């Protein structure tokens, strides 16, 4: 078992994973968005660690995880995370995805319902009102005006570490994934969460996803932007606990 707060990359596991909390408690898996790493999930992980086993992988090519030879699809990333959970003997878990990570969670839940009976999609993409790279960039820039300086700093550092080449390689994978269709195939419960001031995930888009899910709900974090789990971790952690397996 990985010691609390440590990262490990096993020979058979091509992902860096940060694990905190009680290894005997119900599991929660936090899946980051494009350009990011596990770092911006640390406030939420700390909230959950008191009574949960929390696993936060760096997705392929991001953070400290190795970069594949070619950009994987969202489905490929979902399979990679599921294999990691199997190797670590993680039972049924609540999956939490942010932005592109919400797409990965939806794909995981559709593919492995027994392993992923409940999910939380925070600021899910890609909003059908802005499906282009330019539309997403404009919305992200506007959202930054509502985020605290510490959050913008963390996002900037991770984006710089990712680099424009890998970001550009993964962007078409994100834009080409049909999140609404994936959510409609999920049998487990899904909670869609958006910040009240989120400019990336609009209220109509979030509502559409919640309605597409067979067992979907929508909640908003008052005063939050796109990175609600970093600015309001206690609120989001409470909602995650309500869905614990």
Describe this structure as you would to a colleague:
By secondary structure, this protein is of the alpha/beta class. It has one domain: Alpha/Beta hydrolase fold, catalytic domain (Rossmann fold, 3-Layer(aba) Sandwich), CATH 3.40.50.1820. Helices cover 42% and strands 17% of the residues. The protein contains ten helices and eight strands. The chain has an eight-stranded mixed β-sheet with strand order 1-2-4-3-5-6-7-8, with helices on both faces. Strand 5, helix 3 and strand 6 form a beta-alpha-beta unit. Helix 1 packs across helix 10. It is globular, with a radius of gyration of 16 Å. The N terminus is likely disordered.
Describe what is shown at a glance.
The protein is of the alpha/beta class and 245 residues long.
CATH class: Alpha Beta
- Total count of domains: 1
Distance between the termini: 21 Å
Name the structural class: alpha/beta
The SSE string, one letter per element, is EEEHEHEHEHHHHEHEHH
Neighbour order of strands in the largest sheet: 1-2-4-3-5-6-7-8
Shape: globular
Properties at a glance:
eight-stranded mixed β-sheet, alpha/beta, single chain, 42% helix, disordered N terminus, Rossmann fold, 8 strands, 245 residues
How are the elements arranged and paired?
Elements: E1 7-8, E2 17-21, E3 27-31, H1 42-48, E4 53-57, H2 74-87, E5 93-98, H3 100-111, E6 118-122, H4 133-144, H5 149-162, H6 164-176, H7 179-184, E7 189-195, H8 203-212, E8 216-221, H9 228-231, H10 233-242
Parallel strand pairs: 3-4, 3-5, 5-6, 6-7, 7-8
Antiparallel strand pairs: 1-2, 2-4
